[in-house]
Amino acid sequence: MLKTTAVLVVLMAISSCSRNEPQTPMKPSMQTSIPTPRFDGARAFADLKAQTDFGPRTPLSTGHRACLSFLVAELEKSAETVVSQNFTEKGYNNESLLLTNVFASFNTHTSQRVLLLAHWDTRPHADQDPLESNRSKPILGANDGASGVAVLLELARLMKQMPPSIGVDVLLVDGEDYGKSSDLNYYFLGAKYFARTMPRTYKPLFAILLDMIGDADLRIPMEQNSMKYAPGVVSLVWSAAQELGVTQFAAVPGEQIEDDHLALNEAGIPTIDLIDFQYPYWHTIQDTPDKCSPESLEAVGRVLVHVIYTKAGK
Ligand SMILES: [Zn+2]
Fold this sequence. Notes:
The chain has one domain: Aminopeptidase (3-Layer(aba) Sandwich), CATH 3.40.630.10. The strands form 3 sheets. The chain has a 6-stranded mixed sheet with strand order 2-3-5-4-6-10, with helices on both faces. A two-stranded antiparallel sheet has the order 1-9. Helix 2 (41-52) packs across helix 9 (294-311) and helix 7 packs across helix 9. The protein has 9 helices and 10 strands. The protein is of the alpha/beta class. Mean pLDDT is 91; it is low at 5-31. The chain has helices at residues 28-31, 41-52, 62-78, 142-161, 189-197, 224-229, 231-244, 261-266, 294-311, and strands at residues 2-3, 81-90, 96-106, 113-119, 167-173, 206-211, 220-222, 249-253, 257-258, 271-275. The structure holds zinc ion.
C-alpha cells in the first residue's frame, strides 16, 4: 500500500474513545447477547509463521505457489465453498505473472453478507530498507501480508465451529504489493481484478480489509479513505472495539492510504482498511515474525468476531 501525501483532514466527528478513558460499561442488551466464539491469537500467530516459513510470497516464486496451496487447503477445512480465481497480469519485464485470488464462503444460503479481505502476496523489493544493498531483496512480509491472512484463517476456523447468522466471504487477494514505489498501475492487482469481474449481483453490506495489523506495538487509527468512502463501517467497527475495550483501535483519524479497499469502494462495496501504518519495518527485510505478536492479532480478531456475530446487519 501507499501513503498519500494529502493534508490530513478530519472528515467526521466520531464519539471520543481515547486510550486513557475508562471503558464504557456494556449496555444491558449487550450483556444478554448472542454467544460468540473465542478468537485465539496464538493459533492465528501460528498461521502467520506458517506463511513466513514459505519464505517470500512474491509472484512467480516457489514460496508464492507453496503458500497458495497451504491457504486453499486451510480454507477448505472451514469454508462451505472455496474458489480460486486465477488470472495473469504483465510484469515489469513483460513476463506473465500468474496470480490467484482465493474466495471462501461461509453461510452461503444467506444473502445478507459481509466481505473480509487481506492480501497474501509479499513485496518483491525491500525498497524502504535502510541498507541500499537490501533494497533489491524480497521482504518476508510477516506483518505486510501474513498478519491479515492469519486473522482471517483463524476466523474461518471459528465460523466453521460456530456459524454466524450472517453470511461471510473471505477474500485473499494476490498482487497487492508488486508495484514499484508510487506506480499505482502495478499495485492492488488482485483487488482490482476481483472488483472488475465480480457478479453484479454480489452486494455485501460492507467489506473490511486487514493490512499490517500484526505489529507488536499495534495502534489502528481511522484510515482517511475509509472515513471518506465508508464512514458508517468505520463507526460500526470502532464502536465494536470500544464495547470490548480493545484499546489498539484509536478513534482518531490516521493516514490516507492507497490500498486494496479503493477498488472495492469504486465498485460500490463500502470498504474500510484496518491498517497500522506506523511500522518501522515497512517494506524492509526486517518485516519478520518477531516484530508481530499474538496479542495484536487477537485484538483485531476479537473486534471482527464482535462485528460479525453481534453487530453486522442488525
Ligand atoms: Zn506493502
